[in-house]
Structure formats: C-alpha cells, structure tokens
Amino acid sequence: MSPTDARVLLSARGIRKSFGSNEVLRGIDFSVRRGEVVTLIGPSGSGKTTVLRSLNGLETPDAGTLEFDGGPAIDFARPPAKAERLAMRDRSAMVFQHHNLFPHMTVLENVVEGTIRVQRMPKAQALAEASALLERVGLAEKRDQYPHELSGGQQQRVGIVRALALKPDLLLFDEPTSALDPELVGEVLHVIKELADEGWTMVVVTHELQFARQAADEVLFMDGGVVVERGAPREIFTNPREERTRRFLDRILRPLD
Amino acid sequence: MNEGLQLFLESFWPIVWGGITGTIPLALASFAIGLALALAVALMRLSRNRVVSGIARFYISVIRGTPLLVQLFVIFYGLPAIGLVIDPWPSAIIAFSLNVGGYAAEVIRAAILSVPKGQWEAAYTIGMSRSTALRRVILPQAARVSVPPLSNTFISLVKDTSLASLILVTELFRVAQQIAAFSQQFMLLYLEAALIYWLFCLALSGGQTRLEKRLDRYVAH
Question: β-pairing, A170-174 with A202-205?
C-alpha cells in the first residue's frame, strides 16, 4: 500500500446519484493518492460504473463533493458550471468497456484527435508521441488501419493509448476487459498492469479479481450503492470482514459450489 | 413513323440542353442550400430548448404537410400580393430549398441519433466540446448513414423541378412542352421527356453507389 503521506490526487465525499426513483449511489467516500491503483469491484448494478463516470463528468452526482489536487473542487449541491466540468475532464481520461474508438478514423488519428484538436499540441509532436505509445503496446504496424480491422484486444489497447496520449493525472477504466473474448483479456490486462507498475494513478472498475489482487493498492467492494468494504487486496480477498463481500467473492471464485 | 423518329431525334438535344441548363443547376443549387438549412433545422430539432425545437418541428410539419406545387405558387404568384415580387429562378430555388430543408432535416436528425451514445462520451472524455464532438465525431458518421436516404431526396428533387415549368422557368420539361405544343406530338414528346429524366436519374444512382462505397471504407463488411 502507498505510504500515507503520499499526496491525495482526488477525494470524493458523500457522492449521491439517483436515476429517477432509483438511488444508485448512497453516499460514496474515497480518495486516490498519486501513483495508486484503486479498483472497484462488486455485483452489476452496485453503482461502481456510475462512480467512475462521475469522476469525469459523464454523470453528474446529485450531491457530494469531488476535489482534485490543484483543482477543480466541485460541490454538487448545485449543478457544476461548464468550466468546472471541463476542468474535471482535463484531469482524467477514460477507457471504456466497448472501447468507443472513432470508427471513421485510423488508429493513429484516433490517438492524436485529443492531443491535436483539443490540447492543441503541435502536429509533429503529437504524431511522434502517438507512434511511440502505439509501439509500446505492440500496435505500431496497425497505425494506419481502421478500428474494425483490429481484434477486440487490439481495439482496447488503442483505447488505452488514446487515453494515455492525453497525459491525464488519472486514468479511469470502465470494465476494460468485460466485452472481450476470454483469450484476449490477458493482453489488455497486461498493458494495464504495466501502466500501474510505472506509477500511473488509476481507478479501475473490473470483474477480474485476479487483476485486482495483483495490481491494486486498494480494493473497494461496492454493493447497493455503498462501499461495503475497502482495504488492501490481500485483506479483502483472503479475509473479508463483511458477509456481503464474502458471498460476492464466493460467487465469482467458486461459481459451481 | 419516320417523321416521329425524326422529331424525336431533333428534339432530343434541345430537351437534354434544357436539363443541363435548367433542371440540373436548379436541383444542385436547391439541394446545396436545402442541405445547409436541413442541418440547421435538424440541430434545432435536437435542441433541449423547447422553443427552438418547437420552431423546427413547426417548419418541418408545414413543409411536409403542404404540396410542393402550392409552396411554389405561394412564393411566385402569392407574394407579389404583399409587394414581394421574385423572379422565376430565385422563386424556384427558394421553394425547392425550403422543401429539401424540411425533408432532409428529418433524415439528418435520424442519422445523428443513430450514432451510438458512446461516441459522444468518448469525444467528451478526450475534452471535446459539444460542437467539436458534433463536427469531428458525430456528423462524419451520420453522413455515411444518411447518404442513401439523401440520395433519394435528391433524385426526387431532380424530378420535382419539372414543377418549375409552371412558373415559367425554362428547364427540361418546359422545353419538351414547348416542342409538344408546336408539333402537337404530345405522346412522343412527353415520353421523350420521361426517358431523359430517367437517364439523368440512372446517372445519379450510379453516383450514389460510388459515394456509398467511398464512405463505407471504414465499416466492417
């Protein structure tokens, strides 16, 4: 686990969110320190994806506060201003379950779209950085192909590179391997694990408990819109304190019992 | 019969010329203006502002709910009553543009809605504003989806421009009408006009296929 004096990059307090009459988040508190990997696990419908999407403004919580070190700090007691939302987006980048690559752009164009169009990086620099990142994940020779010409695992690696290219302070992963064929999961997890080892700060929503065990500094188990239990992966996986956590782990680790 | 064949051959080029100098420019100009209008109306229709979307809805409803011939006559024969006299050509272009604007707006709106929500989200998470996302991510994908229906709109428009003959615009059909009236060979000349419209539309369909292929290059088959 990270030393306690590590600087907190993000802290979330009392995050609440309802869709209609369905209250999906009932007061979520957590913080992420720089260089730390936090994984959110839990049954579907537990609210973990909504937490993740709240961190970069794809969902707007009804209440609570989000504070990034160095800004912005947003209190959702009132709807956030557009500038606040944009400032929040600047701090993070998202990798989606269904990669959401732009189908009408080549791999390289996908990666530089954010850096050239949004961050206004000089073209030559953006292309050089994008090429280097693609090289890193073993996709250098795919740069001029369209997303549909790649395998699911390759598409997701491009999705990761698109996020990395923005050099965000925080990487958000929304079930990055859930939509993949089982034999393609490994190559994507491998890349994410490498990034974790390199010191990227990330929040990962995942069903891959093995990954959470190996890569996470902290695991949050969510159920019913609350964080039921949190701790180092070793504690959570080998010695869960809560009955709900135990039942969930049993269902996933021993589905046939 | 020989005489008929001779009339057919002699009038062929003048009618085609009427198409090239009348029908085609009329259709192209109206379609270009109409598409720009349609994009604006489609975006208004998608606006969360109820007044804005209401205006767009009303416009589309009027255009689709009234005959094109009536729209054309209101502009050319009606407006002079309130002191607004517009020449035949501009009248025709205004009427056809407004018409395309109404029909194509619904096509473009549906095409924009057909782009998956995840594309908007991906655009937002890389920091794009709504308008940049629309321009860079959504519209290029919507364009591909809307080529077949918009091609139909264009082909309909090419044929509908024959109505402009009724407000004295010299185009394909008006040339045929004049030759028919002069020669009294109505059947022959009107069939010939029909044939030439058909040839024009065949060429346009070929163009549509090529355009679809080009825009399809990034889609899995």
Answer: parallel
